[in-house]
Amino acid sequence: MKKLLIGLAIVLSTSMAANSAQLPENVQNFVKSSFPETNFRFDGVIILPDNTVYLPLIPSKFNDDKEVKIKSTIPSGQTMAQKPDAVILSNDYVLLKMLTNSKGKNTIVNLTVPPLELRTGLLPQDMLVPKNLIIPANLKNIIGNLDITTSHDTGLVIPVSQPKTGGVAVNSLTSTPQLQDKMFYVTTTLSKNIQVISPERKVANYALYQENVPICIQGYQGFLLVTSYDKKSLDVISLADEKVIKEITFKTQPEEIIIDEKNKTAYVSSGEDASLYVISLETMTIKKQLRLNGMCEKIILSDDGTKLFYNDKQTREIWAVELDNNYMLKEIGRFPNVSKIAYVNGKVYVTSRTKSRLAIIDYETMGLMSENEICEKPVDMLVYKNDLYVLGAGAKTIDVIDTTIDTISKTIDLNGNGFPTKMTRVGNSNIALVTDAKAGSYSVLDLDKKSIIKINQLDVPVSSILVTNKVKKITK
User: Fold this and answer.
1) 3-class SS at 359?
2) Strand order across the beta sheet in which 431-436 lies
3) Which helix (H) or strand (E) holds 34?
4) Residue 6 binned pLDDT confidence (cut-offs 50, 70, 90)
5) Where are the domains of the chain?
6) For 147, what's the count of Cα atoms within 13 Å in the CB-facing half-sphere?
7) What is the phi/psi pair of residue 287, to 5°?
């Protein structure tokens, strides 16, 4: 098999916007010294582990102390661990605690004579202001050009119809603790909106309104990243606010999204302009645009984050991008009707949906090692340890391949008359959900036991499902 090495052109590199809300590292380190698990949102909002919210004020002029300390607090004499109403730091940054007044509205500390640092500071100008936030009159200048939403703005949340009779509970989740304290974000052919479902229910709690039909949704630390048809931007949805907090604009329609949590990076494909965009998840900005060969689709990332693979939908060629080698391209070969690509143990696995075949390629030599019969209509693959799970929609089975010897070790039968299309792993656990584009159900697959341990019903067929941790809401 011919191997081609091509230097990948980097045609766009952007730096952090001037109005970025990314807090200085020394300010973040100061907060983390008391609360290590703090979430520093890219728009500036600081969320402590117990869901206490702080809003930063950026000083008009500040000194460059390498190690910041507390200058003063309100009430005075407190430490950060005591979560005071306001913390004024030695570099003149101010952390304002979000409070709740007697009417249940969001507000901040109200002082007759606010300190100079409060009066001259400014909230980050790309921040999503918590709903109904009340700013004292003598601190109105900190708002700048920000819009404050009111209770009339419901964000993306819309109700969904609920059955008048019959229960909504699904089978007990006691045998699958990996699904407890989780939420499902589901796309379906029945609606363009994203259904929000608790694992213990079969109907959606509510939906997140979408103007366009979603192409891909991925999650990262309390955010949804969503691409949609006929839209040249990617929406970043804050699940704590359930609002679009930012739109990342592209030259053409963005499509598939891959998340690399370890490197805090997202890779977004656009087949229309043969590009792969590298997104910083810390700032939610485009870092690079990488020009590829062909119209990229079916992108996957190796477990170690060093290689990305894609199929060219026009030529049917498969390519690898060596992310740790100056984005060098390697041509892997041409295959018919590619349905999925996987990479494990130095080998590339490619399924052909129409021919029900699995090709195995040695990545080092690019030589074809074997081409084997596989389950009918293979539509998805999932790598777990040394096993490769191949989902067959035709026979409604999952073939488990031991990749150390490239032999099928077990075939798992799926019950029902639907059309299974996807396997979605729950975080880094041993549990995956097998979803169905036709039947309203999902199967719970134990990857260690190599067996289906539960089948739960849903009110809608599933095009895709995203499983995230429950996120506490910060709006009133």
Assistant:
1) strand
2) 420-425, 431-436, 441-446, 451-457
3) helix 25-34
4) very low
5) 25-142
6) 4
7) -90, -40
DSSP for 222-262 reads: TEEEEEETT-SEEEEEETTTTEEEEEEE-SS----EEEETT
- pLDDT tens, position by position, 456-470: 989 999 999 999 999
Q: Distance between terminal CA atoms of the chain?
A: 60
304 token code pair:
């170690």
- β-sheet bridge partners, residue 359: 350, 371
177: closest CA among 385, 427, 421?
A: 427
Q: What pLDDT sits at residue 17? A: 35
Q: Which amino acid is at 71?
A: K
Query: Residue 271 is which amino acid?
Result: G
The region, left, alpha or beta by phi > 0 then psi within -120 to 50, assigned to residue 48 is beta
Say which residue the tokens 């991925």 belong to: 218
Q: Give which of 108, 112, 144, 99 is closest to 125, Cα–Cα.
A: 144
Report pLDDT digits (tens) over 89-130. 999 999 999 998 888 888 999 999 999 999 999 999 888 888
More confident residue, 341 or 437: 341
Can you read off the two tokens belonging to residue 418? Answer: 């639907």
Predicted local confidence at residue 171, as pLDDT: 63
Distance CA 224, CA 228 (A): 13
Residue that is written with structure tokens 């979605």 in the block? 424
